[in-house]
TrEMBL record:
Source organism of the structure: Prauserella flavalba
Domain Histidine kinase/HSP90-like ATPase: 340-440
Name this protein carries in UniProt: Histidine kinase
Coiled-coil regions, chain positions: 198-226
Organism lineage: Bacteria, Bacillati, Actinomycetota, Actinomycetes, Pseudonocardiales
Domain Signal transduction histidine kinase subgroup 3 dimerisation and phosphoacceptor: 231-297
A GO CC term assigned to this protein in UniProt: membrane
Amino acid sequence: MTSSPHTGFGRNEADLGALTGVRSGKRSFYPEYVRSAERLENAVRALDRISRALVRTAEGPRGLVEAVVHAAAEHLHADWLLVAVADGALQAARPRFLLLRGAELIDDERLLPAEALPHLHVLRSRPWEAEDAGGGPIVRVPMTLDCEPVGGIAGLPGFGVDVADTDLAILRVLANQAAVALHNSFLLHAATKLRGKTEMLSEAAQRQARELAETQQRLIEAMQRQALDDERHRIARELHDSVTQDVLSAGMTVEVCRAELAAEGGHEQVVEQLTAAKDLTRHAVERLRAAIYALHNGSEEPPGSLPVLLERLSSVHLPSDLKVRVRVVGTPVPLPGEVEHSLLRLAGEALFNTVMHTTAEQALVRLRYRPERIVLTISDDGDGDPAQLRKTLKLTAATDLAGVHRGLANMQARAKELGGTMSIRRSELGGIMLLLDIPLPLRRNGKAAP
């Protein structure tokens, strides 16, 4: 299929004109084509320089501005070229302006060429007027961001450089992309600094968390030692205020009887027995005083779990012939320090009551860990009466017997603080069994334990 020569020639000329911008069919066609090709080649090189300039955001805002200035100056073969950000726009951008003259970069207004100062003033204060260069060889284009003028580019093209519309378009593209890149560069560096601060804060938080955990552990250990120390001191006070005084009184009574019998004469055998009894009471007092001193000056206790603390507790109720065993059933679970302290005090008071108020020779402390509760029992083989103790507990709960028998009531109150109950039963060993039933999760003073 063919077409007329005139028709084919007209179409080819239109296509060539669309590609090159040359629409003339005169003898000047080829020179214009050459100039158009040169402009196209310059445009491609400029776009390549732009792309290389605008990907340097990692170097920071100044590195980006320097790259834009060099790219624009190279495109215009400029004697000098200025990039400036308008006052109030892109407030984080630094530097606010930069001028390239030869190989020198200037960001000090006092060192700028006199002919560049008016253009700097326009780009800073009236960037919307950047398109109007006021005539002359100076080239100016605005820098826009979100359709708002935020600065611009101004420059003096080199001698013999013919600035075409395509050159201005390229400078506008460069300026606009520079505005976006400046903004993104600031966001990148701000995010990097923020990430650094976040990492520092995270490390500080982790360090504080470790220190807090160590402090909590030391606090728990101190509370465990305090629980044992409290029990020692309480036993020491009881021994000093009651047992020791009773033994001393018995010794004094024995001495009075011995002296009276010795004065009457004829009771040598009884006097001898009383003298031996006196020696025994004196020896008992010495042992009690030694025990009180040991209790008051116990060695530093290392930390341990509740089962370990119960084992240690079973050895502080001396002097006594009571043999205490500790049994643990189930898998121990970690408990808050104050809860362990309360359970330890309950067990200690129960064992002390066994020593002081019964004829028991054996005691069994059993700690049961169950899925939803903890059961602590203290049993003995003494001569105590569970029914009588329950009656006494009920009576002391209703009235205050001048502080007498308050121990059981205090123990019951302590169990209630943990959200549990205390009951008194007959032990399988034959004496008293004190049963403490504490539900999980544990509670303290009516509130859930932390």
